[in-house]
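ok trying again, last paste got cut off:
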Amino acid sequence: MMVRGFYYEGWTPHGKPLKERKKDEFLAHVRTAFRNDPELDYEQVVLAVFELLASHVSDGEIEKVKRTLPREIRSLWSEPMPALSL
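nice, full thing came through this time. structure:
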């Protein structure tokens, strides 16, 4: 996955990891990544990614990841995910 990111997606590790401690700062980075879609609910995007991770990673590993997150960002994970409208 990292090799794909480096060579095919243009990802560079420079400046990472980011040190956001606040929910708003974290969501601002998500908003920047999706700047071409201003109607998108950025918090719902984060919830969907967290839900996807939880479905592919063991509960114990997910708990370890949650504990590493700052409190405000971790709070995004514990909020119930709203139903997606298709």
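cool. The radius of gyration is 14 Å. Residues 18-78 form a domain with the Globin-like fold (CATH 1.10.490.110).
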